[in-house]
Write a structure and sequence with these properties.
The protein is an alpha/beta fold. The protein is 36% helix and 17% strand. The structure holds pyridoxal-5'-phosphate (PLP).
Length: 361
Amino acid sequence: MTRAFNFNAGPAAIPLEVLKQAQEQFTDYKGAGMSIMEMSHRSAAYEQVNNETQALLRELLAIPDNYQVLLLQGGASTQFAMLPLNLLRPGKAGAYVMTGAWADKAYKEAKLIGETAVAASTEADKFMRMPELSEIVVPENTAYLHLTSNETIGGVQFNEFPDTGDVPLIADMSSDILSRPVDVSKFGVIYAGAQKNLGPSGVTVVIIRDDLVKESPKTIPTMFRYETHAKAGSLYNTPPSFSVYLASLVLQWIKDKGGASALEQYNRDKTKLIYDTIDQSGGFYLGAAQKQSRSLMNITFRIHTEELEKKFIKESEQEGFVGLKGHRDVGGLRASTYNAVPLESCQALAQFMADFQKRNG
Ligand SMILES: *Cc1c(COP(=O)(O)O)cnc(C)c1O
């Protein structure tokens, strides 16, 4: 079997060990004579998967007791709307830190629902950096402050988070959850689609402080209220059971690897190989993001001509690399180096980049 060097941005690499374990359990889950997908979500076996997934998230992120862990559907994109539906009140504004494509999508959804404000923007720098904490201004009458911890398309990542006092801090961590430790108690809500760092698509993790769960207005549809899912332990309706099951295996894999701080070191080692190759190329490769905001999850870079970029992608594909084309909105090249991307893939990419430069520099 040959596994590709998978640098896809999402859905993305899943640890091979996890895929093999799922394969082993695929047709007969723990002696049940059926796969987990074929079982009732009210069965003891599935209830255990549901509980274990939440417990592992609690453990790995050190989530305090006064937070709920919800496993929802609809992707992070649904959270862009669900968040203001639940937390935005007339007379108050949802404040957004504008750092690129994903922040912009979240902001536009909130605009459909209520008042919004821009708390900071790096548009003048083409979103190629994250704002300094001092640039983030929380306006009067703010319901919450929303930020995107890692902008997947631009390849910029926050290194630290603002202290927003009584104003709940909300973070879209879709592309960097569990890639490093975070202090959950600083946040009112953290949400993340699973398909970058937690497993397959289909499940969205929402970590929400108890007092904010209680704010869900009674007037919004049942499925869109956080309270509905919190009260039901994320089993209000049929959950995406196979996605949750696979996420539980990925979480166990993260735990076996040593948890978030061990993964952070691993991710630093991985990305250093590629960023160093860019920086030592004498301008053949150009890092897209400003250095202080460089992401540990999405490395964005360019080559000085578009022809060479095309050639790079074509030849990389011939060598077994997948997913190195930049997002269609920004072009260039991007290597996504999520938790499950092994060091060996990054070593191979760094080597390929050096060889490509030698041939074309
Ligand atoms: C991928 C991504 C999303 C969108 O997630 P969906 O699950 O496709 O809705 C939102 N925010 C960020 C930061 C992402 O990387």
